[in-house]
Amino acid sequence: MDWRRRALLAAGAGAYASSIFPQDKVTLPKIGLGTWQTFDAGNDSDARAPLREVLKLLDGNVVDSSPMYGSAESVAGDLIAELGMRERLFIATKVWTQGREDGIAQMESSFKRLRVKVMDLMQVHNLVDVATHTRTLRDWKQQGRVRHIGITHYTASAYGEVERTLKSTTYDFLQINYSLAEREAENRLLPFAAEKKVNVIINRPFAGSALFSRTKGKALPPWAAELGIASWAQYFLKWIVSHPAVTCAIPGTARPDHMRDNLAGGKGPMPDAAARKRMADYLDSL
Q1: pLDDT class for 25, splitting at 50, 70, 90?
Q2: Residue 231, SS3?
Q3: Distance CA 75, CA 52 (A)
Q4: Residue 122's pLDDT is what?
Q5: Residue 139 and residue 281: Cα distance in Å, rounded?
Q6: pLDDT at 208
Q7: Residues 251, 237: contact at Cβ < 8 Å?
Q8: What percent of the chain is helix, strand and coil (3-state, nearest 5)?
Q9: Residue 130, class by beta-carbon neighbours within 10 Å (0-12 exposed, 13-18 middle, 19+ buried)?
Q10: How many CB atoms neighbour CB 70 within 10 A?
């Protein structure tokens, strides 16, 4: 975890809110955790057990959720509280509804479900009523209720609207899709985010499961070992997080072994521009 964040957390939410200004770059582990589908476990103790082990592997990482992910917020909140890990994680969620009052009600529910008094990151999902919710979130950030605010989308067809929104309003974070199967973000949006000094979280790093289907039964190239890559998951993730505009990627998993594998994709040597091109070309050749 960023040492500045540790110090400010120790000083309290108010000190943090007064010390963080828009567009500050945030230092986070390169691999985080998404909770869509995987954390929608309800009260099933057997289903929750591996999720607890997944969370134990994290330290400072993003844990990203949403009120649209079924019981995921409640499950993540319960397990994080049980493990006493609140201050060791960067907890993010979203608002996805129309209207100021409905937005406030939904976000207040997320605070309760995730068991947090201060949210590390609240994001306006898919730009739904973005101007209304942004006004609320800017007030909440000033009050110290949220540490960072952002916007999200998961499809390239929205990139034009995302870019226009970033041009008109200051946000700390952008969450978008980007992978070896969905590369459109690198054409304009990622360079623009870097220019605006916006932190970028990547969703859909495996394009659902499309990249694994494409590489099933196929060997990694021999030179992948030079980059510390021991699995296709690490190959896909290292390609993403080595982009200079990317802060972190948030693959979802309910399996501790997959979480360990994913985390390794954010460590060790990172591919430079030439190596990233080689990686993309190799995948394209399969």
Answers
A1: confident
A2: coil
A3: 9
A4: 98
A5: 46
A6: 92
A7: yes
A8: 50, 15, 35
A9: buried
A10: 16
